[in-house]
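User: Please predict the structure of the protein below. I'd like the answer in C-alpha cell form so I can feed it into my own downstream comparison script.

Assistant: Understood. Taking the following sequence of 247 residues as input:
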Amino acid sequence: MIAIYSAGVFIGAGIGLFLGGSILDAWNAAYPDTSLAPFGLRGWQVAFMAVGLPGILVAIWVRTLKEPIRGQSEGLVTEPHPAPFRLLGSELAAVIPPFNLISLMGEPRALVINAIAAAAIVAAAAGLIALTGSWEQWIAFGIGIYISFTWAQSLRIRDPATFGMILRSKAIIYTFIAFALGPYVIGQLSDVFNRRGMESGEALQHAMALSMLIFSVTLICIWLAQRHLPTEEANRLERARALGEPV
C-alpha cells in the first residue's frame, strides 16, 4: 500500500510538470510582452497557480472526511493518546538540534554512534564541497542527513515497532532516496543541456521531460507490488507482533 501511495505522488508530480510546461508555453505565446498580461503575471507564475488550484479543491474535500479509528480494519481499536500535543512536542524536538539528543541521553552507545555519524557526515559534506564547489547544498544536505539519522535513533528507542515499519521498509527508504535525488539529477541534466547551447529555461524543460522516463520503472514496481499484496495483508498482525506492537 505504501508503494502504491508513493507512486501516486510521483505520477501526480509528473503530470503537474507536463501540464505546467504546457500552460507556460501557452501563456508566453499569448502574452509575449508580460506588461500586457493580466495582472502582469508571467508564464511560470500562471503555471504554478493553475497546477496548485486542484490541490486547494482536494484540501477542501479532504476537510470533510472523518479520521478513521486506528486499528479499525484489523478489529483492534486503539485508544486515543492522553496527551497528543505533548507527544507532538517530543516528536518535533527529535528533529531540532540540539534537542534531538535529549532522547538519546540515557543511551551512551547511541550517543557514541551519533557522534561518529556526525563526524562522517561532516567529512562527506566537506569532500563534496571541495569536489563540486557548491557549499550551500551540501551543508543543507548534511544537516538533513544528520537530523534524519538522529531521529531514527530516537524512534528506535522510543517506538521499536514504528521504527521497523518505517525504516526497515524498502518502499519508504527508496522513496526517500528518490525524493532527494530527483531535484539534483534534474538540475545536473539541465546544466548539461545548458552547456550544449540550450537557453536555461529550455534546458530545464528538457531535463524535466527526460526525467519522466522513470515512471516506466514506477509502473513495473506497482505491478510487482500488487502481486505480493494479498500475502502481506494476510500476515500483517503476525509481523506487527514480531516488531513489538501490542496487538
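That's the full C-alpha cell string. The chain has a mean pLDDT of 81.
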